[in-house]
Amino acid sequence: MNYDSYKREWVEAFTPWKREPKEDPDNRKEEIFQCSGTIIESVDTSSIILTTASLLRCSKVRNSIADDIKVIVHLFDGRAFDGHIEAYDFHYNVAAIRIQSDSPLPIASLAHLNDSIMIRPSQLRVTEEKSFQLRPHSNSFDLIPGDSVIALGRFNKKPYDIMAAPGEFSIDRCDYDYFECKELFMATCRITRCGIGGPLINHYGEIIGICFHDVSSIAFLPINIASIWWEHYKKYRQPRRPWLGMEVTNLYAADLEILERIISKFPEVMEGIIVEEVILGGSAEFAGLKHNDVIIQFGGRKVRSFLELFHDMWKHVGESVELVVIRASADVPLHLTMVVDEATSDKLYSWPLWEV
To answer: Which segments constitute the PDZ domain (predicted)?
Structure first.
């Protein structure tokens, strides 16, 4: 496939949305919400579009679908189709919408993020500025702070022009007063609200996340999490939501003072997940985890990053697993046992109620 044809398929995979209530007897319609989405599957004439569950959310009742709504999907070429709700999850704010078209549609390439970075400068890979280029689908993409990314969406009025907001992956944390979801990453792109649910891409044009609107930047859900959610739903027809019971981040993002104490005691440890806060009454507290502990093994497997930990927790929901952690006050690694909880209805994340 040459560059021009690949670029065309890449652009065509992104689509705008709008949500409307179904027509009343007087044929009156009111537009409720607008967002963007990405075609991730297309078999024959049936396609799945990944987007935000805010498209479906009732503005008055938390974590419920608005009554009597109709989803209309507008494609890149001006065609419009009714969207059918295939799956949704208000915890991660993702939804899968199915459409029936008259021909197969181009799909986007997804690249799971590898967010592990060794904390020794001599071990860090040397980076150079990269121009935007397209490549065939790959399995993973190494992401480090400062990497160039682009948030994509489509404007919600004809001719549905594509919107592109360049930026960089940021080490900054999300504002948890605004976003409760602990699995979100940050980038410095600035998008309009109709770009919510649209893809975040790397410099190869691969999807690495789903974008959510903030005032001066974006939060994005790594595509790893959206993908594992969708694959699990297709297999079991029900959601899964591992609950961490703690706030964590990658070891490389810890304060220098904390890193110095850890490295002086355990110089061989270069990757892991540091515990920033233990939630009272959660499984992490019962397991004995403490503030500034560093998790280096989970379930007998070395974990190098947050996304690796999330993936392992997903596989072990409801099970008791062994953790190996290092603690600055201990001389040797500690072995703890933790039950991987699942988020109950009272623990689901709250999301902003974005308006049109």
So the answer is: 242-329
The runs of H, that is alpha helices, within 174-282 are 223-236, 256-265
Give residues with Cβ within 8 angstroms of 115, minimum separation 6. Answer: 143, 185, 222, 250, 305, 306, 307
- Write out pLDDT tens, residues 228-259: 999 999 999 999 999 889 999 999 888 888 88
If one counts every other C-beta atom within 10 angstroms of the C-beta of residue 22, the result is 9
- Output the CA torsion 320→324→329→330 (10° steps): 110
* Cβ within 8 Å of residue 121, ≥6 positions away: none
Give the C-alpha separation, 135 to 114, whole Å: 18
Neighbours of 285 (CB within 10 A): 15
Measured CA to CA, the distance from residue 353 to residue 356 in angstroms comes to: 10
As a whole number of angstroms, the distance between CA 299 and CA 319 comes to: 10
Task: Return d(Cα 48, Cα 51) in angstroms, integer.
Answer: 10
The Cα-based distances of 8 to 12, 49, 99, 209 in angstroms read 6, 18, 21, 20
Domains of the chain: 3-100 (2.40.10.10), 130-234 (2.40.10.10), 242-342 (2.30.42.10)
- Share of the chain residues as helix, strand and coil, in percent rounded to the nearest 5: 20, 35, 45
DSSP state letter for 315: H
Q: What is the pLDDT of residues 66-77, one digit of tens each?
A: 777 889 998 888
Average pLDDT rounded to a whole number, residues 260-276: 91
Tokens of 49: 């579009």
